[in-house]
């Protein structure tokens, strides 16, 4: 020590350092010592402990980890410190979230086993097909038929968590097929398919068809698109993208895996029709820049794309199999309560004893088909050899006013008055399907009367109202669907 000290600072070796350099050196050493001692007292070590203990508290109380962990009890942290802190926290948060998910899964499994004591965990979806397994499934899920390998198809339903899609899923599952639902949950609702979740033949993929997806399927029912005016007008650009890019993506998939594809088009391709009723050969009367254009024109070009792929696909093995259904007004259980359609609005208003609102004089006519009839038609069309567009609807025609009176009569709430509001832009005066083609080519026609269908739909909304409390119907203006109504009001 003394040797080296003298080596650097002494004069015995005759190697004298210049006095100004010596002064600078001593200054630097002093400054370093000061920084090290300050760091020991206020350094990062205590902060890590404080931060993680506050995280544990927050996690215990809030149950969902996350953002409050990074607040450090409101203390300021030097800019380079939080990186180290949050790395460690992130790991802790992940662990906690994982633990919570595992606990929730265990809880669910427990509940299931109480409801179905014979279902052992791990027996569902393991590929063995025994009678006892069928029995186990029967206790957990609605009944499904058993199809041989050759008969069973793997079927993609885009928009399968929506109103029509979920009823189609129910029928395909009941027939014994494997069903993959792709839905972005914009107007789709998890509760519509909740009764199938976990079934070995069922899969729900939350995905937006505007992005490509790779799947192996035999048939594609392409329903994905918001279909009620307030919902499709909420984000018109997105609606156009869904009909164009979404349909292109599905056509690409269908072509690649050689799946037959059915597009659900719409009576809106006829616009405000000048001939009545509308046969498929009618080209329509659509305003290309009106408020409904994003949907109408989107579906029109989607039809165009279907037949472009069909004719460019070549002959024989490489040819594309396409089906196009033009769906007219449809109603039934699982209609979105905020879809702003006359059926749901009238029922919700009447059930709550509110006045029934009609836009315009109510002389505009509509024809309403019950959803079960539509699903039969879609499946018949898919499995037929007919390749041109087919109208699916109920020609039973009502004026909107008469329909409001019928709903009021069936709900048996005479307190509700019929109230008229100004007519909405581009609301078609008449819409009624000519279903000659469906009768001739598919042997299909509606079998459920509007009255019977309404009774079932009213029952559905009665239960919905009991569960969710008050529902305020959506007017004709663009509106965002409110998928979380049921959750937020229940808690
Ligand atoms: C229903 O309409 C009638 C007649 O227009 C009106 O007198 C009444 O206040 C309205 N009721 C409600 C609950 O809005």
- The arrangement of helices and strands along the chain is HHHHHEHEHEEHHEHEEHEEEHEEHEHHH
Content-based structural category: alpha/beta
Give the biggest beta sheet.
7 strands, parallel
Under CATH at level 1, the class of the largest domain stands as Alpha Beta
Number of helices: 16
Query: Fraction of residues in helices?
Result: 40-55%
Radius of gyration: 33 Å
Q: Average pLDDT, to the nearest integer? A: 79
| Corresponding CATH superfamily of the largest domain | NAD(P)-binding Rossmann-like Domain
Strand content: 5-15%
The CATH architecture of the largest domain is 3-Layer(aba) Sandwich
Characterise the protein shown here.
- The chain has helices spanning 2-9, 19-42, 44-62, 81-115, 131-140, 163-175, 190-193, 229-234, 236-257, 293-312, 342-351, 371-382, 400-411, 436-442, 450-468, 485-490; strands at residues 154-158, 178-183, 202-206, 219-222, 260-266, 322-327, 330-331, 356-359, 365-367, 369-370, 390-392, 397-399, 418-421.
- The chain is globular, with a radius of gyration of 33 Å.
- The N and C termini lie far apart (74 Å).
- The protein has two domains: 45-120; 141-490, 3-Layer(aba) Sandwich (Rossmann fold).
- The strands form four sheets. A seven-stranded parallel β-sheet has the order 3-2-1-4-5-6-11, sandwiched between helices.
- Mean pLDDT is 79; it is low at 1-15, 37-85, 120-129 and 484-491.
- It has 491 residues and is of the alpha/beta class.
- It contains 16 helices and 13 strands.
- The structure holds 2-acetamido-2-deoxy-beta-D-glucopyranose.
- 2-acetamido-2-deoxy-beta-D-glucopyranose is lined by residues 354-355, 417, 419.
